[in-house]
Amino acid sequence: MKTKYELLAPAGDFSTLVAAIKAGADAVYFGLKEFSMRANAKNFAIKDLAKINKLCGKEVKKYLTLNVIVYNEELKKLEATIKKVKGKVDAIICWDLAVINLCKKYKIPFHVSTQASISNKETAEFYKSLGAERIVLARELNLKQIKEISKILPVETFIHGAMCVAVSGRCFMSQELFGRSANRGQCTQVCRRTYKLTDEEGRELKINRGTVMSAKDLCTLPFIDKLKKAGIISFKIEGRNRDARYVEKVVKEYRKAIDHKLSRQEVKDSLDKLKTVYTKGFSSGFYLGVPTSDDFSKLEHSAATLKKEFIGKVLHYYPSPKVGTIKIQTGIIMPGDMLAVIGNTTGIESFKVKTLEIKNKKVTQAKKGQEVGIKFPKRVRKNDDVYIIKKNK
Q: Which of 18, 166, 265, 386 is the most exposed place for a label (fewest CB within 10 A)?
């Protein structure tokens, strides 16, 4: 029987949720405003679950992340939250035993988070005995190690996105320097910064690159077939803090790689497209062997080949002719420009501008303060944000 592989996408807000669904995700994972490992993401409220269910329908699975460390004074609130989400999500991703016990109490399926650092068969057997339906393995494992563990429980692993220098989490740097705990979803990403080495007398030692703790992003697209052979059934994209453009692009390219055997040229084309959105360079992580110094980024910021810049908002939209107007709030739009429209219902729609009209007359450009008419290839909504896509110099 052919294995059904799951492509699991991040959703930090409704625009990324819709983008993930439209791009072909089989499942989405998201957090609530409380108990989220991505506190900086917009996240959702419990009242949003009805809308999330409507958008996902029966085809797209919904996994709620409750994977922070939990304190005594939060246990009642945690239980109240779990009671409220029962029947509204397909599973809860967690690792704290208090959360696991409450999932069992209210008969909610649970998947064990990568925060648990499951790296051997005995640990997998333990979580199986607790009733886990799936385990998200530690990131430090290679494909051979994964294959052995996958015989015990269904396995989920990360396939693309940012990699923490602490690998499977439990980093304390952000807490030490800024009082914001990464294990409570408040990471300030101090490992991404550029550093200088200074002695007690203030003398600086020059080092080749200052980003000494900044790992490149994980990218498994060139060897996705090897992950399948290792017994992985759920392929997870990191990025609950990323925007709809990132989520759409990454989901689309991995959808193709999971569903079809790509040629070398197709792999190259997909990698080029992945490079157009946020990245710090690509690494194979631990899958093919222990990372080397080449797996650390030389950049403090993104190496994406393209960037988006806010240009204005959709002011009106008329579905039948698929035309509307944009209120330009900054910058200039000209025919030939690439635009991206992002909204909670729209998700993301990207297209090249063919013509512009102001007061029913064709124009060669539209600038700040003007209301310009434009033809949209697909439906957008009033108040959607409009961005211009440019080359990143």
A: 265
